[in-house]
Amino acid sequence: MVEEVLVRENLLPQEITCGEELVRRVKRAGLRVVAAYWVRDRTAESASWTLDLVMPEVDKQGPLKLYEKIHDIVRVPTRIQCGLDINIIEVLGVKYSFFKMLKSSIRSEKALSNVRLSQFVVGDGLFDLYIYQFPATNNDHR
Questions:
Q1: Do the strands 89-92 and 49-54 form a parallel or antiparallel pair, or are they unpaired?
Q2: Domain count of the chain?
Q3: What is the pTM of this model?
Q4: Cβ distance 108 to 129 under 8 Å?
Q5: Assigned domain for 106 exists
Q6: Going residue by residue through the chain (142 aa), what tens digit of pLDDT does each one get?
Q7: Is the N or C terminus of the chain more exposed, i.e. has fewer CB atoms within 10 Å?
Q8: Domain limits at 127?
């Protein structure tokens, strides 16, 4: 099986729209999304984009159960032509270390939506992000 990896300097508008559509569909399916964002580690050997979905259900049910649900959602055709593959989607719990570091790096008193961050330092890494939604850091999502 050949995998297409999203390795590009910038996200295309269509990819941003497709990610937004997926987040909307995940929520419509009754899953709680705490944060959703495209992320690319500029320091990684293969600087590919991934779509991270942070959901409390991952901590309770485990990632495999959520990947199955996301896979079912991705398989259903959308109104727009999307090439989102389950291989570029990361399903994470709220206790995931990168999400916690990202929260402490962003330090926003307001929830963020539709924000692009370029060359943003998180821990020891340098990241590009497109944020669909991200909680205010003063909110506790346990």
A1: parallel
A2: 1
A3: 0.85
A4: no
A5: yes
A6: 333 444 457 788 888 999 999 999 999 999 999 999 999 988 877 778 999 999 999 999 999 999 999 999 888 876 666 767 788 899 999 999 999 999 999 988 899 999 999 999 998 899 999 999 999 876 444 4
A7: N
A8: 13-133
